[in-house]
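Render this sequence as a predicted structure.
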Amino acid sequence: MLRLTPPITQVCLREYRLDAPRAGADLSLPLPKPGCRQHWQPWSDVCAAIDAALRQGKGVLREPWLEFDHPYTAPPGVFFRLDQRRGAAAIAVLKARQHLMPTLTDPLPWPETSGSPLAISHCGFFPSRRRHQQGCIRLNLTGSNQWSWLRLQVPTVCTAELQALLEHPHLCWSATFDWGAEGIEQLGFELFPAGRLQRGSQLKEAPVGALLHVLEPWCQRTAIDQCLQQHHNWHQEQVPHHRQSFSHIKLSPCNDGAWAMKLYLISHAAG
């Protein structure tokens, strides 16, 4: 299966559905520098587009990661970290879309606020996904004002119960969603151990255990344990020289009022 993806070297991230622990996991990994891409020939076109976007972004875009949706047969999506201190993010993201999805010519929508600007940490493009083919982009929010902005956008989702969860002292969070002409689609809340926003943690660290304890009313611990076992089995087979770590859990609202959850686990080189 992994023959359909580039070689895993220093680090990768795997995404497990808690409602289907034994289903295949999506896989993300950072794009190496141009001189370090042995065996990346099948993805030369997307690599060239990313390199062009980085050059034109002039530092606003950095740290590209590729995401391969299981079973890894479709073109990968790409995430960029945004550094808005280096220039206008909206312009850099538009130019990146022109390189990565050149058939899209409509103006790129960008979220606006009447108060403080949103802290947008990442943007993403997924050429194989229908919403992105229609012009959506993926955005990740951080910052103290993200809840108030989200509550205006999706008041039916941003309930008092959810707010109480997100304000729990044992976690920190960021929002991720597809953004397009119709506003927010495919919303998710990425829940990290307290003080570890968008950073990895050791699986057996106390903050990870505290986060999982807080989430017990929202998901079954048995499903998490099954995903951990699946990750361990894959890890031993594919990258036994790596270490296993915890990233985060994503909580997403479903159309029927239920919640879907995904577990994100890291595999990284030891030392």
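Summary. The first strand starts at residue 11 and ends at 17. The CA atoms of residues 94 and 108 lie 6 Å apart.
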